Amino acid sequence: MRSHTGLRALVAPGYPLLLLCLLAATRPDRAEGDPTDPTFTSLPVREEMMAKYSNLSLKSCNISVTEKSNVSVEENVILEKPSRVELKCMYTATKDLNSMNVTWKKDDDLLETTDDFNTTKVGNTLTSQYRFIVFNSKQLGKYSCVFGEKELRGTFNINVPKAHGKKKPLIAYVGDSTVLKCSCQDCLPLNWTWYMGNETAQVPIDAHVNEKYIINGSHANETRLKIKHLLEEDGGSYWCRATFPLGESEEQNELVVLSFLVPLKPFLAILAEVILLVAIILLCEVYTHKKKNDPDAGKEFEQIEQLKSDDSNGIENNVPRYRKTDSADQ
């Protein structure tokens, strides 16, 4: 009776606003307990999620850390689609492990301990395990297990498959056609997209609109961009982007378009040097040949030598000679 009386009192005139406030306060807030939020720790919701994603494939990874580890031990975990993930860190030490503390971090954020974490000790080995479900791109990143005050850690880098292109710039010439390639190993992207970079942003390439481009690929894990009738302004950066259910991966390719005069410049410089050298050699040969075939030049040279000889003899003959007399005769 009291409960009915209280309810009638709330519904009575003058209290409709209070009733609405009470209903709003007791309404579950989806922002605080969104089942799609990985940080939501309500046990019933987590069990519902585990049941929903129970048919997902399991990805299990292990890392071993020792007390002598000076740097972080890392392992790459590649995921294309939503999966159940099991990360395990094993720490081996010679000292007592009872006081050893283990924490987990997502990038630089500390993860709260829940039922998804499990830590056991067997002998001189401490094992910490973290199980969770990766179902969106926000959950990609670095997951680290941190041991003790020295913060010895093992790190799992969870990412989508990496797209690979040509590392060195591709060189082509004006008027030609060229093909840029991208691929990913052991993966099946949902689609591939090509972009051309300008000074400020990446511009999508639509091969259906612009006949200059052709996009195709012989396999699902690769893509090719063919560019026809190249111009110098076609040179620059191109990006291929692979889209997966969990995120995207892209790779940069460089294209350099040259005119035909560019490769000819070194050849023309060498040719000019050769022509100059040949001209010098020919002039020397002509001069030498002319000197040998000109008799007047030889006679003139002989006359000059004869005059020099006569002049020197004349000087010697004009020198007065004195007769030597014996001192005894005097």
Automatic annotation (TrEMBL):
<dbReference type="GO" id="GO:0070593">
    <property type="term" value="P:dendrite self-avoidance"/>
</dbReference>
<dbReference type="GO" id="GO:0007156">
    <property type="term" value="P:homophilic cell adhesion via plasma membrane adhesion molecules"/>
</dbReference>
<dbReference type="InterPro" id="IPR013783">
    <property type="entry name" value="Ig-like_fold"/>
</dbReference>
<dbReference type="GO" id="GO:0045202">
    <property type="term" value="C:synapse"/>
</dbReference>
<keyword id="KW-0597">Phosphoprotein</keyword>
<feature type="signal peptide">
    <location>
        <begin position="1"/>
        <end position="33"/>
    </location>
</feature>
<dbReference type="GO" id="GO:0005886">
    <property type="term" value="C:plasma membrane"/>
</dbReference>
<dbReference type="InterPro" id="IPR007110">
    <property type="entry name" value="Ig-like_dom"/>
</dbReference>
<keyword id="KW-1133">Transmembrane helix</keyword>
<keyword id="KW-0393">Immunoglobulin domain</keyword>
<feature type="region of interest" description="Disordered">
    <location>
        <begin position="293"/>
        <end position="330"/>
    </location>
</feature>
<keyword id="KW-1015">Disulfide bond</keyword>
<keyword id="KW-0770">Synapse</keyword>
<dbReference type="InterPro" id="IPR013098">
    <property type="entry name" value="Ig_I-set"/>
</dbReference>
<dbReference type="GO" id="GO:0007411">
    <property type="term" value="P:axon guidance"/>
</dbReference>
<dbReference type="GO" id="GO:0098632">
    <property type="term" value="F:cell-cell adhesion mediator activity"/>
</dbReference>
<feature type="domain" description="Ig-like">
    <location>
        <begin position="161"/>
        <end position="256"/>
    </location>
</feature>
<keyword id="KW-0325">Glycoprotein</keyword>
<feature type="compositionally biased region" description="Basic and acidic residues">
    <location>
        <begin position="293"/>
        <end position="311"/>
    </location>
</feature>
<protein>
    <recommendedName>
        <fullName>Embigin</fullName>
    </recommendedName>
</protein>
<keyword id="KW-0677">Repeat</keyword>
<keyword id="KW-0812">Transmembrane</keyword>
<feature type="domain" description="Ig-like">
    <location>
        <begin position="38"/>
        <end position="145"/>
    </location>
</feature>
<feature type="transmembrane region" description="Helical">
    <location>
        <begin position="267"/>
        <end position="287"/>
    </location>
</feature>
<keyword id="KW-0472">Membrane</keyword>
<keyword id="KW-0732">Signal</keyword>
<dbReference type="Pfam" id="PF07679">
    <property type="entry name" value="I-set"/>
</dbReference>
<dbReference type="InterPro" id="IPR003599">
    <property type="entry name" value="Ig_sub"/>
</dbReference>
<keyword id="KW-1003">Cell membrane</keyword>
<dbReference type="InterPro" id="IPR036179">
    <property type="entry name" value="Ig-like_dom_sf"/>
</dbReference>
<dbReference type="GO" id="GO:0030424">
    <property type="term" value="C:axon"/>
</dbReference>
<comment type="subunit">
    <text>Interacts with SLC16A1, SLC16A6 and SLC16A7.</text>
</comment>
